[in-house]
Amino acid sequence: MLEAPKALRLHIGLFGRRNSGKSTLMNALIGQSISIVSDQPGTTTDPVEKAFELAPIGPVVFIDTAGFDDQGALGELRVKKTRDVLERVDIGLVVVGEQGLGGFELALIAALREAQTPLLVVFNKGDLASPTPDQLAQLERDAIDAVAICAVHASGIDRLKEALFRLAPDAGSEAPRLVGDLIGPGDLVVLVVPIDLGAPKGRLILAQVQTLRDILDSDAVSLMVKESELATALSQMTAKPALVICDSQVVLKVAAETPPGIRMTTFSILMARFKGEMLGLAAGAGAISRLKPGDRVLIAEACSHHPLADDIGRVKLPRWLQQYAGGALDIDVRSGNDFPEDLAPYALIVQCGGCTVTRKQILVHQYRAARQGVPMTNYGMAISVSQGVIERALECFPAAWNAYRQGVTGG
Ligand SMILES: Nc1nc2c(ncn2[C@@H]2O[C@H](COP(=O)(O)OP(=O)(O)OP(=O)(O)O)[C@@H](O)[C@H]2O)c(=O)[nH]1
Ligand SMILES: [Mg+2]
């Protein structure tokens, strides 16, 4: 009964001309020979379905269909079955063979669009043909995603999975609450926010605003102070706060001033859960303790902002990580969409909190890192590690605390 019910699975249909490699692709995606492959056009006659757990999307059903371009009496029945599939899938893959993108594929694209079905063009047989620049430009103009693969050699399948994940309507969007599940009605939550030169003028940053809103939604009570007022605020309270949440930059002071027995964490750690897969990021934080001088580290920021004098990503984090490693590290900073395909050279990836990007985008990065066996964490967790307070800040997330400890030992 742990299986996802079929209706909840994302249905992904494979469409295209006969012999374009749909069945080969389906087999490559699931890593088994489920659908019959041959060089004879028209091999698949009836739709072939296979339920599968597809990382990082989750439970899916792939539906391989009969090539669509054949006509005639027998052909028409097949075309109808394929059309039925086309109308009920959640995502359509338009598989293009060595003939390239032609009128037939454009008609398929139009049919999927008419059904309002997200679609992805898959240029298969990369060993025999490649999409032309014109075709790619046209797809881009129409805002249609495309990937080039070679199904027989199972190459490009990971990029295809990432593209599928970005298309999936609900995948990754079921974010946990920011803090609402950690508190109850009437609870008091203390928020500690430094107002320094880096603080935006006349407003609060998004993570703080979202946290305040979630506290309001939970019918709880919030009190926001600067770190200089925290001790006073705590000493004047008659009831114990349920939680103290601070900016990572003051985590050392706040951890010291919050009495044991009162839970404390940081906005960035809440964001790690809200915008990413927390356990993976916690395990990645543990890997910081295994950094050695000379290791390569990737620092990835989602937005390209103008760096401040003591920018976290470019100045503070590198300094802290190098102190931790006990020597110079080889640090690359990448911003925006420039997240490398090949992560193998890195001993660690530190991703920003991702306040300006979707959860999906961070999950795609995490998926890519996990697949290549590279530990990945985020800014806030890395800062708490460098300040020696990560275990305190993870106390209210026991599973993440365990994942962190496992990351430390490399287990
Ligand atoms: N060179 C090359 N051949 C491929 C590739 N993918 C599939 N093929 C070959 O293309 C032929 C057709 O593959 P299928 O997977 O059966 O194609 P299909 O789209 O399912 O065809 P129908 O079921 O007839 O519609 C087979 O001989 C495959 O081995 C590829 O990436 N490169
Ligand atoms: Mg087939």
Give me the strand/helix succession: EHEEHEHEHEHEHEHEHEHHEHEEHEHHH
User: Could you give me the name of the CATH homologous superfamily of the largest domain?
Assistant: P-loop containing nucleotide triphosphate hydrolases
Strand content: 15-25%
The whole-number mean of residue pLDDT values reads 89
Second rung of CATH, namely the architecture of the largest domain:
3-Layer(aba) Sandwich
Assign a percent range to the helix content.
25-40%
Q: Which descriptor suits the 3D outline? A: elongated
Q: Count the strands? A: 14
Describe the biggest sheet? 6 strands, mixed
User: Structural class of the secondary structure composition?
Assistant: alpha/beta
Compute the number of helices: 15
Which stretches are poorly predicted, pLDDT < 50 over at least 5 residues?
A: none
Name of the top-level CATH class of the largest domain: Alpha Beta
Could you say how many structural domains there are in total? 3
- Please give the radius of gyration in angstroms: 25 Å
Rounded to the nearest angstrom, the distance between the terminal CA atoms is: 30 Å
And the CATH topology of the largest domain?
Answer: Rossmann fold
Features:
alpha/beta, Rossmann fold, four-stranded parallel β-sheet, binds guanosine-5'-triphosphate, 15 helices, 18% strand, binds magnesium ion
